[in-house]
Amino acid sequence: MLKLISRRFLLVAVLVGALAACGPAPLGTGWPAVSLLQSQCGDQPRDGILVAFNDRIVVINPANGKALELLNADCELRPPDADGTAKVWDFKPGSARQFYSSPVLLDNQTLLAVSYDQRFFEIEFPAARADSTEGIPIEGRTGHTVADLLVAGDTIYVGLSAKDLLALDRETFDVLWTAPTEHGVWAKPLLVEDTLYFASLDHYLYAVNAETGEQLWRLDLEGAITATPVFHNGHLFIGSFGRKVFEVSLEGQIVNQYTTDEWVWGTVTIVDDTLYVADLGGNVYALNTANDLAQIWKQKVAASAIRPAPVVSGDVVIVAARDHKLYWLNRNDGTPFKDADGNPLVRELSNPILSDVLLIEPGPGVDIPEPYIIVSTLSPGQLLAAYTLDNGQAVWSYSQ
Fold it and tell me: Cα–Cα distance between 125 and 115 in angstroms, integer?
């Protein structure tokens, strides 16, 4: 009974803002949406870490953990303000709009964001400003959205937190079609050729025609689903609150399934035919996608829930938990990865970790000496933190 109460408390505590029936959620009830941003100025690649949290969107320089400085048309730093303050990428709309999902860079000139109250902002990327500070509403719709957008061609696909998935015209934001659901859509859809696959809290995984929205099939996965399906070797892989991970054919049939100890919230990670997934009991699993989801290993890692998808690189798997900790695991068996002193490599942050963990590597547009792990907490005082991948050394911390 205690476990059931704890799980319900976790769900309510994290998602109370998204479930609000009317009015904006109080600031601080959301979670940061964190993603890698690949852009260019002229022929110069310039990447950053895009963070949408509460009432603003910022782009962070991965090299130093500071807001990315704005460039002019000649790709030179814009002149500072009169007081000498550098102009940086920081967008804050009017009326205390809030953001729960990651914006999408449409081109090097336009960033598209959707607020919690379903208003779209076309942000001039080089200047970090929008023509409308109130945003463009979805005509005939009210409610909220927490799912990441999918933009494909001339169409925007957006899930609504109460129910339904919409297809919108990219230019006019008119509704092209609606795919009905019985509960909310809280995860980004997946497009494979001309079919859109998406999950809902109503327990169903849906497949619809991406052009018309016609439902092709829906499949009951025995519990609420808050993740995007992953396409691998011709099949879909996804977990649910039914305490299971499923392998599903593109025709909507369950091919294989694996039972977990607790609810699965996050998206699975698949590398070299091995599926890595975590549950809300703090367990991490490695499953063989080439052998009917047979268990390779299972480890109890954290004292509380693991919501983000595992990050896999080289010989390590990295997971982040609600217990404020970031864990390094051995990829071959899931045991703790040891530091130079022989101790488990674990880093503790100031607040719970619910957002996805990022791996960012050196390259054109990314001026860092080695790969970094980027993690976000629920606290504006430690919104982002960067650690080296190989030994977990703290590199920088960003506060808002």
Answer: 17
DSSP state of 303: S
**Residue whose pair of structure tokens reads 């902002």 in the numeric block:** 121
Read off the pLDDT of residues 56-98 as tens digits, 9 standing for 90 and up.
999 999 999 999 999 888 888 888 887 878 899 999 997 778 9
Q: Look up residue 395 and give its amino acid.
A: V
Report pTM.
Answer: 0.92
The residue written with tokens 């696959």 in the block is: 197
SS3 83: coil
348's enclosing H/E stretch is strand 346-348
- Give yes or no for a contact between 200 and 221, defined as CB atoms under 8 angstroms apart: no
Closest CA to 41 of 109, 105, 102, 113: 109
Instruction: Determine the pLDDT at residue 24.
Output: 39
What are the tokens at 382? Answer: 């430690």
User: Could you give the C-alpha distances from 292 to 235, 244, 248, 270, in angstroms and in order?
Assistant: 12, 13, 11, 14
Beta carbons of 67 and 60 less than 8 angstroms apart: yes
Cα–Cα distances in angstroms (integers) from residue 336 to residues 18, 102, 263, 349, in the given order: 35, 31, 23, 18
User: To which residue do tokens 């039972």 refer?
Assistant: 259
| Residue 104 token pair | 């999408």
- Give the separation between CA 329 and CA 230, rounded to whole angstroms: 22
Q: What confidence score (pLDDT) does residue 6 get?
A: 37
Sign of the dihedral defined by the CA atoms of residues 351, 352, 355, 358, in that order = positive
Range 59-67, long-range pairs (CB < 8 A, 24+ positions): 59/89, 59/128, 60/384, 60/398, 62/360, 62/366, 62/367, 62/368, 62/372, 62/374, 62/386, 63/366, 63/367, 63/368, 64/396, 65/384, 65/386, 65/395, 65/396, 65/397, 65/398, 66/398
Judge contact between 130 and 93, C-beta under 8 A.
yes
